[in-house]
Design a protein that fits this description.
The structure is a homodimer. By secondary structure, chain A is α/β, with parallel strands linked by helices. Helices cover 41% and strands 13% of the residues of chain A. The first copy, chain A, is built from 11 helices and 9 strands.
């Protein structure tokens, strides 16, 4: 039967509300400018990417072939070792981080996880779910790991192998932990076994396209990396990539096979459409389009810092490769209009499409007005 | 830039392949007949249902309001206790089972998980991921738990609280574990603390619409239930419902809050479109439409058993409420045409749309021909 008139009106109202909110949603790391309508015709099928995209599936309505190409592109962006990587398209950052930490725990069952205090709360949830011992490390004021605290804490716990959860772009401040510094500490302490997972949710699609990226890739020391698909690229469905060293995944696959679990992914049934969307996006943007998108966003971030500062707001960003513009928490009245996510004393905007200079000007003017009114 | 002609041709070929495979995909529990095109316009937004659907989100481009109505409908189908349930829309059965077992482990940290040998392999994966001790219980030939083995095994391990993973429809045989029998065993052994999670992936949308359902709901003893959305209802994206007793979830929420993880769902970022699709499906089918869908599928299952038997194939189903028609493993040549998933010595078809009598007749004829050729 058709929807009732009331229900139809509710859907129309939802669409109108989303349309109005889109240009005001400046506080989340989501590119909102995309067009996947050429792929909608695939939503008439009950497709499913269940299982390992590289090993085939009995369920032939899948897009594993396209998924493999997407993972291969991300292997290139993360400089994954030739012939020694494996990955899949996840339902988002949490699953990617869960996967990396799962691989780490299987390799180092007694391992202790270290993560900075600016780490996203979902990581605490994963560590609890997976029963992993962990220690929170102090942050520097800029949100980056306090390497002295890391060094000292590792030194005290040299009896258990360390698993470092590194942020390649923290949620609030866009801060990057430096993998070379982390590796240097591990070397200095002569720690024989360790694992580094890099959560590069947002920055993992920025850094491949800048001139002087900080150390964050596999050759820099990462053992697994998680990158979101719905953030810089933009996608109506949260998604991401989990990628890890193949030799590690293979070791786990053997132990997983032993317990009868034939699937090396976490989700089991996985949707077939986000791999197709990511594939379409990468193909239609190309590396040149991605580079242009990244540099436009970086230029806007620079503009936003200057504009906010010029109006008396103490804005900053972690470095010239960050599109996360941080500032003191605005008065609550500003959040009635703008969709931003303050935390304690700070808030941020993230300069992704459809943001432009006019939006930033309007935001800065509203911010100043809210301060004066407060 | 537009897709290259080659890439466009690949997408066209994929669509053609899916179109050809759809009527032949008879071995998976997926209703393939649905039309969500009225909702495609919502795929132009970077919406996100991050967090608890009942507690609100800063990210205002969400469909939490619709998600709550979907969960409420499933609370009704599962006879969840008034005012004492909580749930959310998951990315599929694995996440729903992971959630139920996570709740169980947090309540009974020393608990031992018991599950039948016919349980889906993904459960072994979850138990490993969550570090839960577990024992596999023998199955009866029909796939249902061997209650004597369960009784005897529980008796031996009375020092640890049991967590029972019950199948309300096993993957291969569609067998149902009987919650009243399980509860009776727990009572007989005077076990003071226990937890039952019910995996009702497929049957959870059948049993609310039959006359004499076996005991499988909350009043029958379930503490949490997982039901798939992409199976009986049909959805282009794998999804499902996790639903649990609210008092248990609240206890976990407190402990999760303590570690700084503010989110009681497993995924974190969750897509906003599957809740909308499930809402649309429930609204446009209505309980009458759902009942008709269920009874049509049951009638087809009955027809399939008779048809296959009439042609000399030893087909059967667990009981008159099952749409899973089981038969001896066919010759491999049959799987070249038909998409079915044999396991060891058996295989099955599942009688969901667009299947009809003509498809079953064709399948039976091909089966017999393949046997003769073999």
């Amino acid at each position: 039967m058709p929807l009732s008139a009331d229900d139809q009106a509710r859907l129309d109202a939802l669409h109108a509300r989303f349309t109005a909110l889109r240009p005001l949603s400046v506080g989340y790391p989501c590119n909102q400018q995309f067009d996947y309508s050429p792929l909608f015709r695939f939503l008439e099928f009950a497709a499913n990417n269940v299982g390992d995209p590289f090993s085939g599936s009995n369920y032939r309505l899948n897009t594993h072939e396209f998924e493999r190409e997407v993972v291969a592109a991300f292997a290139r962006y993360t400089k994954a070792p030739e012939g020694d990587w494996w990955g899949y398209v996840t339902n988002g950052g949490t699953e990617g981080n869960m996967y990396g930490l799962y691989v780490a725990r299987e390799l180092l069952p007694e391992g202790m996880v270290y993560f900075g205090e600016d780490t996203h709360y979902s990581v605490a949830k994963i560590l609890r779910l997976q029963h992993m011992r962990n220690i929170m490390i102090k942050s520097q004021p800029n949100g980056e790991l306090d390497y002295e605290d890391l060094h000292e804490t590792l030194r005290i716990h040299r009896d258990v192998p360390p698993i470092i959860f590194a942020n390649i772009g923290t949620t609030m401040k866009g801060s990057l932990d430096n993998l070379q510094k982390i590796r240097a500490i591990l070397d200095d302490l002569a720690i024989p076994e360790s694992y580094i997972h890099a959560d590069a949710a947002l920055s993992g699609m920025i850094l491949p396209f800048v001139g002087q990226p900080p150390p964050w890739t596999f050759p820099d020391g990462a053992d697994s990396i998680s990158i979101s698909g719905h953030k810089l690229l933009g996608c109506p469905l949260p998604c991401g990539i989990a990628i890890a060293r193949k030799r590690n995944v293979d070791r786990i696959a053997r132990s997983v096979e032993y317990v009868g679990a034939l699937d090396t992914t976490i989700s089991g049934s996985r949707n077939a459409i986000t791999p197709l969307m990511l594939w379409h996006r990468l193909k239609t943007l190309g590396d040149d389009g991605l580079r242009a998108l990244v540099h436009r966003s970086l230029a806007l971030a620079s503009y936003a810092v200057e504009k906010l500062r010029a109006t008396g707001i103490d804005a900053w960003r972690h470095d010239e490769n960050s599109i996360t513009v941080v500032f003191p928490r605005p008065p609550d009245s500003l959040m009635k209009k703008w969709v931003i996510a303050p935390k304690k004393k700070i808030a941020h905007i993230i300069t992704l499409p459809p943001m432009n200079e006019a939006v930033i000007d309007e935001f800065a003017a509203d911010f100043v007005a809210a301060r004066l009114a407060g």
